[in-house]
Design brief:
heterodimer, A: mainly alpha, 65% helix, B: alpha/beta, 42% helix
Chain lengths: 302, 302
């Protein structure tokens, strides 16, 4: 097998047919949800949610599920939004929209696992950024969400090569990038970069997508790349990985990324990583629930 | 960490009420964390609230705020925190309480030992269950190692040293007879393989398992005796240090550090942390659990 050059990877990614358009309400809703919680108009959120039938139905569904339902489950969109909380609405929104990025038959890996990991990583990135008082926790959320889009490019443009890599990663329970390197000679970081460049993503987002497994290789945005790298590892150790567990021990503080992050954010030194992990644990089930309910409803629709 | 070890009752309580928890419990949570190292994330505050409620009833205290007084006013507070800790950790002594810890031992630690066997004079794995109470933990460890006796550990000798302060606990442990409640997380496969029925709904640990475990009375505060505990590959000490003041705790942890071989691991209770008590150990993440690692000489970072 000859490994394609980055130009060849770029060419193949360019030939990907356009992905389905995202719902019109997504961007305004995300903008709204990014505001400080006490400034968000609940009425406006409810209005936008109600505008998109699929999103509205999903919010109601999750709010009425066993995980959230109170003695009397909410019957209106407003009731659903209030009992879910703004951040959960955001998660549902993203899962709803992103779940439709690829048609079901194009996925070479479990889409529910993919979104569980992406949403999980987004959440961990935000929590981590908040904990060390990094400037832009919402940016961290976004890049956490997008860091693995290379897998989508793999599914669309490298179908033949990617299948065996997925099989090997899950069979040997090794990190995906290792399996990709061993079977394809390139990784989702390479294809993700090509896709992100084609979509004209901002440079820091591109850096994260391209270097979250090779932190020292990042050209700019070093601390953001390091933050995503650590969050990604943490997710994979805390049950938010790709549906299989990697049997190994991870020493985050000894990771090169920790030192890079510490240089820019000295407060990292005071982070109680054990407590941070315990706090994550309880978000894990919530995220799994949101994703699995999005996918079971998608399955019901089709 | 929550990987399939949550008791049923906990699940019912989370979706049952949905009522907001009195913020005083956050204060109590933080007090408990500061004094004991046990952390209850927000979703599990109902467990803490339940423990407080039982204590309040016992003491005839009417409000959580009044109970806060019992926990903080000088004269009785140490005793009361101890009582509360008993309530919170109740039901944690059973076999296979934490599957992720068992998996980390089998799939990562034992695997690592075997991989490095050339560096060992004797093919022996040695584990210390410190504060073994009535024997559930050492027997869990013994069964887990026995499962590898025809696999990874073929030709190896396995040894579990189990210590406790309480003579009566040790006698019960040595007898090795458990009821269904203590075996609620033990698979039928293990029950058949490693237990012998002993009367109505009782199970007797088989001799094959018992042979691996040596029980000894040991006070972790006894500095001279603890020095004899050497050459450990792993130490399990769950919900024991939580009762110690921070000075004794730090001292015991230092002893644990020197009892371990280089590259050995210390496991605590599932929601227990060492934060700010020791800077020699490295926090390591395994799938679904954390542990503390004594760096190997090779790593050169002591």
């Amino acid at each position: 097998v000859t490994t394609p050059t980055s130009a060849q990877i770029g060419d193949r990614v360019k030939r990907i047919e356009t992905v389905p358009a995202i719902p019109a309400v997504l961007l305004p809703l995300l903008e709204l949800l990014k505001m400080p919680a006490d400034q968000v108009s609940i009425d406006e959120v409810v209005r936008l949610v109600a505008h998109d039938k699929a999103i509205a139905a999903q919010c109601l569904r999750v709010a009425r599920s066993a995980l959230f339902a109170r003695a009397r489950p909410p019957e209106s969109i407003q009731g659903a939004v209030i009992s879910l909380g703004l951040r959960r609405v955001e998660d549902i929104l993203l899962t709803c929209c992103l779940g439709q990025v690829l048609p079901a038959n194009e996925w070479l890996l479990d889409p529910a696992a993919f979104w569980t990991h992406s949403l999980g990583c987004a959440m961990v990135c935000r929590k981590f950024a908040e904990r060390i008082a990094a400037a832009d926790a919402e940016k961290a959320y976004t890049v956490g969400l997008l860091h693995d889009i290379g897998f989508l490019a793999n599914c669309l443009a490298f179908t033949k090569e990617f299948g065996p890599a997925v099989e090997r990663a899950t069979r040997e329970q090794i990190p995906f990038d290792e399996a990709e390197r061993a079977t394809m000679g390139f990784t989702h970081c390479d294809t993700g970069r090509a896709l992100a460049e084609q979509w004209n993503f901002p440079d820091d987002v591109i850096q994260v997508i391209a270097h979250h497994h090779t932190v020292k290789g990042s050209e700019t945005a070093h601390s953001l790349v390091a933050l995503v790298h650590l969050s990604d590892l943490l997710c994979r150790m805390c049950g938010l990985g790709y549906g299989y567990c990697e049997p190994r021990g991870v020493d985050l503080m000894d990771d090169a990324a920790w030192a890079i992050l510490l240089k820019e954010y000295p407060s990292l030194d005071g982070v109680d990583l054990a407590r941070f992990t315990f706090e994550l644990d309880e978000s894990v089930e919530g995220i799994r629930d949101v994703v699995s309910s999005a996918f079971s409803s998608a399955a019901m629709r089709s | 960490m929550t990987v399939g070890t949550q008791p049923e009752s906990a699940k019912i309580a989370t979706d049952g009420s949905g009522e907001p928890v009195d913020p005083i419990f956050l204060q109590i949570r933080d007090l408990v964390y500061r004094t004991s190292g046990i952390f209850q994330p927000e979703g599990k505050l109902y467990l803490l609230a339940g423990g407080c409620a039982r204590r309040m009833k016992e003491l005839g205290v009417r409000t959580p705020r009044e109970y806060w007084g019992n926990l903080t006013v000088q004269a009785a507070r140490d005793g009361e925190i101890r009582e509360l800790l008993n309530e919170i950790t109740i039901g944690e002594t059973c076999l296979f309480r934490s599957q992720p810890q068992v998996d980390a031992l089998r799939k990562v630690i034992v695997k690592g030992l075997v991989a490095e066997e050339v560096r060992r004079a004797v093919k022996r794995v040695r584990i210390w269950s410190a504060g073994c109470s009535t024997g559930e933990e050492p027997y869990t460890l013994a069964i887990s190692l026995l499962e590898e006796s025809e696999g990874l550990l073929k030709g190896w000798k396995a040894e579990i040293v189990a210590t406790d302060l309480n003579d009566r606990s040790i006698e019960t442990a040595k007898a090795g007879i458990y009821g269904e409640y203590a075996l609620r997380f033990t698979s039928d496969y293990f029950k058949q393989k490693y237990f012998v029925p002993a009367g109505e709904k009782k199970f007797h640990v088989s001799d094959e398992v018992k042979k691996l475990v040596t029980f000894r009375r040991l006070n972790l505060q006894d500095n001279s005796k603890i020095l004899f505990m050497k050459g450990m590959d792993a130490i399990f000490c769950c919900n024991v240090l939580i009762y110690f003041d921070s000075v004794s705790k730090a001292r015991v942890i230092k002893h644990f550090f020197s009892s371990l071989n280089f590259g050995g691991y210390l496991f605590l209770g599932t929601s227990e942390s060492l934060f700010q008590l020791n800077d020699q150990f490295h926090l390591v993440h395994f799938p679904g659990t954390i542990a503390y690692w004594k760096p190997s000489l090779k790593a050169g970072r002591l």
